[in-house]
Every structure is written in structure tokens, then in C-alpha cells.
């Protein structure tokens, strides 16, 4: 068993050769360029990483998780990532929180609504820091795959973007750093307004009974169907927060801690322990360890 995987305390929770189910063909190839740092993941992902390393000891865990739509974080030592801090106070406008606003389109009766949404999302995904969306997994990961250039996959694996390396804007704490996305960025991606949203919020997706941490064929079928409804201006495609919760029922607190439910985080945590790892703390992987 590789010595690289273990459980440790961390300030922030994360929240192959054969293509995983549901992976869009146009984004199936990802760079194997390694990123140094500490990989933080869920127990479900740790099980997957453990298996992959047993099959191929030279495998790198981050590309596999990225390709499958899992959520994870890679925190890079600040000394390795931050080259120049605060060259000037004149940050690019997209890094100025005061300039970041989201109007909330939602009205599909407006014939230009969908095109405006696409323009806003594609403009957002030109910002280097939005590589972070791809590590959040789930619906945000899939939306970024749909609307961003394929090169963003490699940016997600290459380490902190220029926004944090040059401008020092991102998640920096305790000698570690990573890019970060703001709530307004997520709102732009799913088009949130007071009346609802085009896409279900990430927290509802993440807590849903149907989400098992890796993107599936069933997830992809739903995504393509909903995408078609939105692009054809189906006025019933957008939904309120309450309606989204009805369609994607959140798993109950009792079930979320039930170790007998196959595929759940609780099940994965118990299995991870049976494999000989500590389950008291968040699973991590030291990407600087040679295996």
C-alpha cells in the first residue's frame, strides 16, 4: 500500500485508462502534469484513489478525481506558488469583488436570455481562478466542462493560477494556498435570481440522494435533457430553490451516517478504516511523495 495516502487534520474540508461513466468525450483527455501539494478529499474519493494506486502504483490521483467529477482540494505550499505578491493595487477588474455583480436572468420568455447567459458564463470562465470550479465536482464541474474551453482541465491540474501567484488573490492560510471562487461566481454559473435558477444550486446537488460523488451515466442523461430544455427556452426548465429540493431530495441525516448504505460517505469511511487507514481525520495525499 502506498505511503502517500493517510488521514490528517486540515483547516478546510473538501468540501484511468477506461473512461468513467458519463464523462463528456470532448473533455475525456486530461494532462498528467503533476501538481505538488496536499490533496484533500472525501472518503469516497479516498477509496477510489486507493484502488487506482493498487492497480497502477505510478498513477496520480488528482487527474482521476478530476475526470470523474469528484470534489477535492489541492493546497500548495505558499512558498512554491506565490512568486510575486501585490505588484500594484490595480488588480484586474474581475478580481475586484465590488465589480462582481450578477443580474439574474431566468426569464426564458426573453428570446435573448439563453444567449446572454452563455456570454456571461463564458466570460466568467475566462478568468484564471475559475479553474477551481472543476475541483468542486458535481453540477458545477459539469457546467464548466460544458461551457469552458477544454484547456481549463489542464489549468485545473497545473496548480494555482496567476490570480494567486501574481496578485495574491485566493485562499491563503497557514502557509498553504489555492484558488477560490466566490458565491457570485457560482450564482452566475447556475444563474440564480430571486425567482429561482436555471440549474440547481451546488449545495442541493451535493446533498442529493442521487449524487454518489462521481458523475454517472444517469447524471449525464439528466444534464443533457435539462440543457435541451433550457436552450429551447422551455419556461418550465428554471425552478425555485424549493422545487429543486423536491426534484433532488436531500439525503436524511440518519441515512447520511448509515454505514450500511452502499456508496455513501459513511460506508466509504468504514471501508477505508477496514483497509487499515485512520478514519479520525480527513483523508489526504501528499503529492510530493515518490511512490
UniProtKB/TrEMBL annotation:
<feature type="region of interest" description="Disordered">
    <location>
        <begin position="1"/>
        <end position="29"/>
    </location>
</feature>
<protein>
    <submittedName>
        <fullName>Uncharacterized protein</fullName>
    </submittedName>
</protein>
